[in-house]
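Morning. Coffee machine broken again, so started the prediction first thing and wrote up yesterday's gels while waiting. Chain of 113 residues, entered below exactly as on the submission form.
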Amino acid sequence: KNYLPDIESLDGEALSVVLRAMQRKRNQGIQTLPEELNGPMYDLCAANILAAPLVNLSPVIASLVKSPGGEIGLSGVLATQSASVVDAYSEFFDDVKVAGEDGGWVLITGTRK
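Came back before lunch.
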């Protein structure tokens, strides 16, 4: 599976990173996860990604976290953008909230439904 986000949802810096990753994938034949690892197998997912890609990846991240009880810790999110991330993950996780803030950046946590 390809877990790279939809290009239209990215800002300039994130788009540059994704395009370089796509180029490496074409040039180096990056292997994807084996099928037996594509499922809800993780107790915890920590992601330090910008808000827009986190929102777009919410179904993918949720699908990889054990249900019920798996946890998320999401950072790389500006406080001003936290509501959109909390909303996206609330569909899949209980008690999704901003658990901390430092210099305008937040940590969002939740527990898998």
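The chain has a mean pLDDT of 85. Going to sketch it on the whiteboard this afternoon.
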